[in-house]
């Protein structure tokens, strides 16, 4: 072994170690930020390792440098700008977009290697020396294409640019997707048999498969899909590692692929959904209309913002339950103003965070942190549940299924078994909601019928603004 | 590097990934996903290899460069956005329990 090889070996080893420590650290609150930086450092280290290896062995042509610099500057610049500019509420679609581009990158590498000869002046496709090469190129294209189109569809759906077409909720979609999958398989084997023109067929059908699989999935299940696609992009990277013969790429790709799978599993558990039903079940509301849980509300009490303000003023302890609706209305800052007033009046305020509150797990924590809510006021479900009986007022803001007592009481309910917040134990519950529409599960919420629950109808942001006005009139929070 | 040893690398890498995140507080699901997503942009190394080995083949250089651009968009954007999220959690480290 000569020196450049040894240096690269050591750097790669170090990079893998740091990346592993990075992923590990990202799963603890205390170390997360440093871990993220450590991973970023490991990535730059791996680039230095690779470039120094080529400098020390074959050398890097000026022309190559030029294209490296062009690609790096454009990619990094757009990435950095988007990351700085994007509002925190759009986080899920941003991650989806980044992820799709990672898949696209693996796809392009495989295509490049497949179409053009690499190192040496052989004829096209002569490098298809071994089966391994062909298989890894095919896998890289297949997974890369699915990751790309799937992520873009996920992003478009989360942004609201794309709705769920009706046919995707019928059985037709399974047929369509099976056709795409079989076609991919045919193209795959055709390619391995040496028929190189079927590479384009593979690109096209796997792209269509990515779209066909993602399109039927409902908005609330999207985080799970993004997490799964994230795992795919790791697999695509590992496959690209086989294509260019890089151990570092294989390890890092495999690590992200496996960690992504675990994370997907953890998310599914929090939402009481199985991965299979997320992927093949269509959107949840379509299934549940046939099953139990539908029914008319019989005992709805609605009340004005003024009554709500009066009750809040008299309370000692208030728990806020923020949900998807709050995130959509972007009312987190307004909410913070309300709670500030209450706190100034000596009222104890905490936020009960359901594991899947917001638009994706953990998203609500980010949004509330952005609105300057002190970290220690955010209580996780298991911590806060015993507190509800001693609570005067609970404010439910845009949350629905996560406060449905059916999940505990009704074993026939599709929600049964899902961990929920026991808000009904509190003395008074105010539910701020636009109307009587069901949550994303499409299931009636028994909470709304309970005698201690009052509905305050309206847009979360508007109601909170009115609430600030009412509290001001009552003299709450005046210094 | 023989194919068999590359398969070992794949296997051990996957096992490592499975073990790395056992218990994650829900708070960190979004940042963790975003951070892992940035790491999956490691495919930028493959793009770099492609460009270095292109040897003056212009279409290949362009494909490599575009691929590198996509990968770095993923990496740089991913790490920055993760940092932005995590910065919010650690804003007041002194009052943290």
TrEMBL record, chain B:
The chain crosses the membrane at residues 33-52, 59-81. It is found in: Cell inner membrane. It catalyses: NAD(+) + NADPH + H(+)(in) = NADH + NADP(+) + H(+)(out). Pfam families: PNTB_4TM. The keyword Transmembrane applies. Its main location: membrane. It comes from the Bacteria. Residues 7-91 form the NAD(P) transhydrogenase alpha subunit C-terminal domain. Keywords: Cell inner membrane, Cell membrane, Membrane, NAD, NADP, Oxidoreductase, Translocase, Transmembrane, Transmembrane helix. It is a multi-pass membrane protein. The transhydrogenation between NADH and NADP is coupled to respiration and ATP hydrolysis and functions as a proton pump across the membrane. PANTHER family: NAD(P) TRANSHYDROGENASE, PROTON-TRANSLOCATING NAD(P)(+) TRANSHYDROGENASE. This is proton-translocating NAD(P)(+) transhydrogenase. It comes from Prochlorococcus marinus (strain AS9601). The gene is pntA-2.
